[in-house]
Amino acid sequence: MPSPTRLTAPSRREEPAALATGIIGGPVGRFAAIGRRGWTYAAAMLSALASVLIALGVLQKNHCVRDGWGSPGALWRACYSDLPVGSGGPKGGTPWSAGGAGHSQPVLTAILDWFVKQLTPGGSALGTQQVYFAIGTVIIVLLIALTTLATASMVRDTPWLAAHVALSPVLITSALVSFDVFGVALATVGMALWARKHPVAAGILLGAAVMARTYPLVLLGAIVLIALRDGARGPLLRCLAGAAGAIVVCFGLAYAMGGDPLDPYRAWWDQDAGYGSPAYLLTVAHHPLPAASLSIIAVLGWVVAFLLGLYLSGRPAIRTQMAPLALTMLVIVMLTGKSMSVQSCMWVLPLMALVALRWREHLMWAGAEIAYFVMTWLYIAGPSNTAKAMPGAAYSFFLLIRVIAYVGIAWASWESSEDLRRDPATPHSPPKAAGPARVVPDVNHRLTPDAG
């Protein structure tokens, strides 16, 4: 049976949450006034706690912070990060100058990388890397806080669900590897604006998110499917217009700065299978697929994801919710893609919160993710010391475990999200005592503005 107490006070109903609260006084008491301080208090507390996990992430990368991010030391210590790499090259110019990130990153991520480089003072190579990493860390802390706030705003009755974003163990290992969380923050704010019935602003943020990381196209697709099902064509058109406008502006900005925003996508088409992709198992076995075949498989993965989304959203007997639909579609796209980097785990955290995933399943997934994180660096470092390297067969095993973990959270999201269906208006809900009416946020039902 669904339990609303699990959502409003996870420490009462979920053993992992109850054990974790031991360091701050234990589970919520029987007579505690749950929700009296509002969702903003929970979001503020979770954002502060998220900064602690990022601090642990800096500690995890202490070897590189002290001695630099050079290979193979950064690989053996599992402290590699793309951030310090962005500090190289001359200052000034544009993101599309020689050595700029514009040739390998989407427009807004390339601009963010270039902007941080301009803030980084000159000096020794190590000193420049350290300052760049420090500035990047501060930006990532703020972006995670923004993501937590946006997530909590979509589940205002159950804001502690945003702990899936702020307190996930994967923040320690993966949050500081790159600026992926930039796209995550933009996409989550976009979803929050859509849930609060601001379709134009939502579209602008989601379009910007696509220009920071491509995966938010999946979220936009899920919104389209749910909105069409619910007849919300007016808000949907305004949302899509906002997204298209943001993309056009970003492309125009790139061209105005002398760059070609399509460079990363052309490079992707010619890219071989990368780390994390199930297709990389064939590379480990010395039977790699051609880049063109991998591109076709990746495109077919998007098609399958949207066809499945169309089926799931159109079932007449079940009112499919947006969050589990988007998570399922995203997992399909990730697993059929050419690569699945260690920081890709950041993409799913807001959706795990919105589907009210149980902490047992979250921690099992995080355990697989962290184990894969460590084994990846040991495998990549292999050529420098084959005696202590991770064998290809062992790496393949952890890659498969990770794939199973992603399928598992997609499957579990449908069951967990059922707890969000409890509403005083539904026949199966028990009668409630007299008191203030419970306002259920839109995300719990359809994440769609009213039609019209």
From TrEMBL:
Residues 420-452 are annotated as: Disordered. It comes from the Bacteria. Residues 443-452 have a biased composition (Basic and acidic residues). The chain crosses the membrane at residues 39-59, 131-155, 167-194, 200-228, 240-258, 291-312, 324-357, 363-381, 393-414. The keyword Iron-sulfur does not apply. Pfam families: PIG-U. Keywords: Membrane, Transmembrane, Transmembrane helix. This is Membrane protein.
